[in-house]
Amino acid sequence: MGGNISDALQTQKLVRDIKSIKPNILVAIDQEGGSVVRMKWDKFASLSARKMAEKGLEDIRIVHLERAKLLQENGFDLVFAPVLDLGMENSWIKDRAFSEDAEEVAQVSEVILSAMKQYSILTTAKHFPGLGRAVEDTHEVLPVLNIPRNEQDEDIQPFSSFIKNKGELVMTSHAVYQQLDSDNPASLSKRIVSEMLREDLKFDGIVITDDLRMGALNKIDNKFIKALEAGNNILLYIDYLPKTQKAIDEIAKLDKSYLYDRASELERRLIQVGH
Hints:
Layout: H1 8-21, E1 28-29, H2 49-55, H3 57-73, E2 78-79, H4 102-117, E3 122-128, E4 144-145, H5 149-164, E5 169-172, E6 176-177, E7 181-185, H6 190-200, E8 206-209, H7 223-230, H8 243-252, H9 256-272
Parallel strand pairs: 1-2, 2-3, 3-5, 4-6, 5-8
Antiparallel strand pairs: 6-7
Helix pairs in contact: 3-4, 4-5
EC number: 3.2.1.52
Keywords: Glycosidase, Hydrolase
InterPro entries: GH (IPR017853), Glyco_hydro_3_N (IPR001764), Glyco_hydro_3_N_sf (IPR036962), NagZ_Beta-hexosaminidase (IPR050226)
């Protein structure tokens, strides 16, 4: 997430060293542009999603072709972008969102996905099923959203488009959606991950949580197990040992045959998306 990279040469060496140990490892980075930038040497780093949207689809295509090329040159396989949340008034997502219009965001998604595919970069639609109506920052607290079904359908539209266009990963959000599952954040909800995303939207790619270290989940016990049992394939946890080891130890208590089946599922899905 930026803390272990400083410039292009150092990053390229780091990624080479990692892949020399495990050649088929998936190396990812958070590179949206604007306020979320890890590669400072990206020449479009200062452009937020909102600023890009103001320039139009052709400029978005050019920016993301250049960014995809840069990601490939630096050894990355996966980018945690694009943000497909709708940029509603007072949303904490702010200019990380391209637009408040679902159709416009869906069109942007298609352009970005196409650009990234040209350089074999996997993309991640986030934050399902939409954080654009949240006014509280999930890095700090757990938002509880009571969204009418017609508005929820609007929030989901860009994700549905991303799925139809063969997008590879979807990131689940740390917010409670009372009309969908009043008891669990989306990232820990079987109803939202396994039923809504998998069954209703027919998503057959990889589901990854948002960072499980975030403040939204601070008061939730067994969050790693709950995230896995909800149906997520990858649990994103941005921290160092011993906290990471604690998370691994928690998951290791699960039934071994279940863990083997989940690992096999992830392997199948990775092959399916071309990694």
